[in-house]
Design brief:
Shape: globular
Radius of gyration: 14 Å
Low-confidence stretches: none
CATH architecture: 3-Layer(aba) Sandwich
Number of strands: 4
Mean pLDDT: 97
Structural class: alpha/beta
Distance between the termini: 12 Å
CATH superfamily: Response regulator
CATH class: Alpha Beta
Strand order of the largest sheet: 2-1-3-4
CATH topology: Rossmann fold
Number of domains: 1
Helix content: 40-55%
Length: 142
């Protein structure tokens, strides 16, 4: 079982988008049974909130649903369960360094920051970035 956790600031835009995109990719590849995929926040600001409506609409535009998601903050216990934690930007990395006992299993999703639609309003660019990163992960493991 390959356990992957996606992390962003609030767990309402980028990380849940990545979670549901990755779940869709592994389902289409016929390898869902080999993966456990989830997402979390580095902050407590959005705890309990669903996927941000424009992010949800972007996913739905591509045929992906995200029902039942509730934002939560990563814990040390949760971190220990995952093989890989993919963060969206340098700020997320700095939070993880302060929160976790080690960051040996933490990696950037891309070699650049994933566009943050909370500030840009450009959910299609975020979709493209997340697609790129998730496809690379799938290629690595499958």
């Amino acid at each position: 079982m390959i356990r992957i956790l996606f992390v962003c600031h609030g767990n309402i835009c980028r990380s849940p988008m990545a979670e549901f995109v990755m779940k869709d990719l592994v389902r289409k590849a016929g390898v869902s049974d080999r993966f456990e995929i989830a997402s979390a926040a580095v902050s407590r600001e959005e705890i309990g909130n669903p996927v941000y409506p424009p992010a949800r609409r972007e996913l739905e535009k591509h045929g992906i649903r995200c029902d039942g998601h509730a934002a939560h903050q990563i814990t040390r216990g949760e971190y220990s369960r995952y093989d890989r934690v993919y963060y969206m930007d340098g700020s997320n990395a700095r939070y993880l360094e302060r929160m976790l006992p080690d960051t040996a299993r933490c990696y950037p999703l891309l070699d650049r920051d994933v566009a943050d639609p909370w500030y840009t309003g450009d959910f299609s660019q975020t979709w493209e970035d997340i697609q790129e990163g998730c496809r690379r992960i799938l290629e690595e493991f499958v």
